Hints:
It is built from two helices and five strands; from the N terminus they run E-H-E-E-E-H-E. By secondary structure, the chain is of the alpha+beta class. The chain has a domain of 27 residues. The N and C termini lie close together (11 Å).
Amino acid sequence: MKSRRVITFVPTEHAEKFATDMASHIPKLFGNYDSVCWWSDPKTESGTEQFRPDNGEIRQAPSVRMEFSIPDDDSAYERFSSKLKELHPWDQPVILCASMDIEDNL
């Protein structure tokens, strides 16, 4: 089965709310399961985002990696990434997307 793995980074304190807010926008991909996502444990795998806003100082913020699997479909990706941008706490979130093969053992 083909899918797209969509990855973004979310400030640690926003991870749970962001996952909950995104849940109803994650297209069904895995049999009877929906709202599927994964994020790193802030206690063991937290990272730090670094950025500089226009004409500002370099800032750093604790963040977690959050991943979603969605169908390998352009329109599904457009709807999903649009909602991700709308709900993400940052003005310009990083969004990485890769096509993947998922073993269909359901």
